[in-house]
Amino acid sequence: MNLILLGAPGAGKGTQAEVISAKFNIPQISTGNILREAVKNGTECGIKAKSYMESGALVPDEVVIGILKDRIAEDDCNGGFILDGFPRTVPQAEALEAMGVNIDKVLSIDVEDAAIQARISGRRVCEKCGASYHIEYNPTKVEGICDKCGGNAVQRKDDAPETVVERLKTYHAQTAPLIDFYAEKGKLVRVKGQDGVAETSKLVMEALEA
Ligand code: AMP
After folding, report:
1. Which end of the chain is more exposed for a tag (fewer CB within 10 A), N or C?
2. Ligand 1 centroid distance, CA of 209 (Å)
3. 3-state secondary structure string, 116-147?
4. Ligand 1 center to residue 58 CA distance, Å?
């Protein structure tokens, strides 16, 4: 099963991708996590991506498409995968088609802009494994420490309120058109993001099994 998760920053894509990944035993591929790792390690691709990410813009299509292509060629993707944060533009979606990848379902998690800032201000992400948390809705068992790997669960630099405003603009201008793109192909399912992780997961599972 090949899945795509769409949604504004802070809608819960990463958290739900982790739940789906565990349930269906398919890898979660987060281009944001791959890029953050590249920035941390100072790789050539990380150096190219850094300033875009910090300003809330998208990293150029050719950089991200290359990353994705290499990642889905890995063996663990043979039985399917869940894309979290890719595609983010129509050219990225077209590139995925050109790679011959068949997408089974595209799940959009819908959250209104007015709720995004509050959700993002409480978000924490593990620096080491990329796992997602929220201080209120999905807290770590020990404050600041990732339950899964013991790494530090921290606030992302681009989760600062000024950058979130930019990321939301970017989402509406460049990523939201993918909702129609996949609806026209009959692949889109939509769920309304709830405050609680379990409540959203229930809707997500119902939508995937429908
Ligand atoms: P995320 O963790 O998905 O919110 O991604 C963090 C940042 O990485 C985004 O704001 C973009 O700058 C960059 N990014 C992640 N995925 C993509 C993508 N598919 N296309 C372009 N930029 C991306």
Report:
1. C
2. 28
3. HHHHHHCEEEECCCCCEEECCCECCCECCECC
4. 6
Which residues are registered as beta bridge partners of 138?
134
Indicate which residue's Cα is closest to atom 6 of ligand 1. 32
Max distance between CA atoms of the chain, in angstroms, equals 45
For helices 90-98 and 177-184, angle between their N-to-C axes, nearest 10 degrees: 40
- The two tokens of residue 144 are 């600041």
**SS3 (DSSP) at 1:** coil
Instruction: Pick the catalytic residue from 13, 71, 119, 124.
Output: 13
- Ligand 1 contacts (CB < 6 A) are 9, 31-32, 35, 52-53, 57-59, 64, 85-86, 88, 92, 158, 167
- Count the helices and strands in the chain (H runs, E runs): 9, 8
Asked about 156 being catalytic, the answer comes back as yes
Segment 6-65, tens digit of pLDDT: 999 999 999 999 999 999 999 999 999 999 999 999 999 999 999 999 999 999 999 999
Mean pLDDT score of the chain, rounded to an integer? Answer: 95
Q: Point out the catalytic residue in the list 36, 88, 105, 124.
A: 88
Measured at the CA of 122, the angle between CA 9 and CA 40, to 5 degrees, comes to 65
Known catalytic membership, residue 167:
yes
pLDDT digit string (tens) for 56-71?
Answer: 999 999 999 999 999 9
Q: What's the number of CA atoms in the CB half-sphere (13 Å) around residue 159?
A: 19
